[in-house]
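Try this one yourself first.
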């Protein structure tokens, strides 16, 4: 369930602001990975993701008209009740990128308060949910102050486009349950500017699909996704990787429609390992996997072979493992997680999640 609890910041801090909007936005987990981008924040290959539900960011943006208009962006940012100066350069860059789409930004002062339901910067796409929530707030503010009457489709497209300019994967967190970002011939309306909902009927086995995230490492990543994407620019295997991802998306699209779990598992796990193979073979190389990540992968494969249950794994750019499985096997898989995989997390635990439908106005 998405949280409706009050923010940790005292309401006295926003008393001078005339109005506010609040959105929650989920994280998402890419099944077909995007790794490598072109200016500005455009993908080198199409990607496909499950939108999550429980792993989300809640953001409130309070705003007021400036007393004197200047040529600066004026904002304060608080994360989980405390100032977060380290995030301000990212927000400054984001505002600069989206100013052409949101010309009111320099006319107002903003107080941005944000909090996560999951650990920040640990490979659960926190930037995706954060930027999707902020972008949704800004689109809502534009509608209020400019009187813009967006249709639902227009609102979602604009929010996805804005979110992409903050974090590429954020484009996929506006809607759900399955999103495609990047031009692909098999997905109607797909493009590089914003994500679209997967346009084909999904087999029953993939409806209410489960994602349990093992918290192998709650710490911040040693290498940011931004740096990692940059290393693809001169990567010797980049061109082949982009071709492979688009081909895999074609295959996975058919699996989602046909309910072909065997091929689904093969493609999803291959994509996860290919993502980390690109990291291992970049210059300089970097390793985000942890020993216990590999140990958990081995246990998942052994459990699948022993029981015949359709369970698989994927990874984002981090050590934490996403355990994917049909809702029909939830009881057996959670028993396995509690008795085997939980021990591998060394008490850091796990988060139970499932596919969801995107942003929500609070």
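Now uncover the answer:
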């Amino acid at each position: 369930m998405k949280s409706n609890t009050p923010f940790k910041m005292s309401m006295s801090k926003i008393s001078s602001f005339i109005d506010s909007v609040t959105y929650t936005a989920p994280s998402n987990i890419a099944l077909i990975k995007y790794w490598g981008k072109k200016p500005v924040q455009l993908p080198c290959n199409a990607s496909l993701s499950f939108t999550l539900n429980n792993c989300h960011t809640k953001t409130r943006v309070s705003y007021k008209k400036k007393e004197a208009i200047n040529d600066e962006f004026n904002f304060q940012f608080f994360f989980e009740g405390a100032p977060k100066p380290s995030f301000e350069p990212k927000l400054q860059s984001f505002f600069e990128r989206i100013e052409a789409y949101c010309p009111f930004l320099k006319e107002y002062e903003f107080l941005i308060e944000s909090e996560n339901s999951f650990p920040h910067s640990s490979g659960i796409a926190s930037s995706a949910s954060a930027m999707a929530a902020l972008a949704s707030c800004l689109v809502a503010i534009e509608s209020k102050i400019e009187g813009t009457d967006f249709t639902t489709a227009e609102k979602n497209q604009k929010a996805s486009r804005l979110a992409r300019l903050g974090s590429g994967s954020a484009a996929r967190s506006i809607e759900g349950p399955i999103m495609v970002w990047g031009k692909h011939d098999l997905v109607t309306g797909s493009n590089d500017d914003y994500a679209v909902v997967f346009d084909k009927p999904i087999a029953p086995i993939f409806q209410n699909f489960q994602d349990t995230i093992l918290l192998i490492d709650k710490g911040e990543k040693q290498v940011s996704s931004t740096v990692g994407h940059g290393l693809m620019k001169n990567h010797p295997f980049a061109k082949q990787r982009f071709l492979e991802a688009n081909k895999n998306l074609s295959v996975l699209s058919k699996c989602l429609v046909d309910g072909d779990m065997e091929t689904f598992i093969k493609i999803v796990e291959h994509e996860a390992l290919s993502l980390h193979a690109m990291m291992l073979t970049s210059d300089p190389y970097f390793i985000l996997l942890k020993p216990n990540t590999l140990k958990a992968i081995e246990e998942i494969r052994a459990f699948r072979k022993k029981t015949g249950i359709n369970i698989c794994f994927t990874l984002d750019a981090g050590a934490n493992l996403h355990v994917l499985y049909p809702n029909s096997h939830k009881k057996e898989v959670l028993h396995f997680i509690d008795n085997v995989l939980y021990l591998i997390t060394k008490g850091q635990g796990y988060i139970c999640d499932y596919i969801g439908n995107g942003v929500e106005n609070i």
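Discussion: The domain at 11-200 is CATH 3.30.230.10 (Ribosomal Protein S5; domain 2). The first helix runs from residue 88 to 98.
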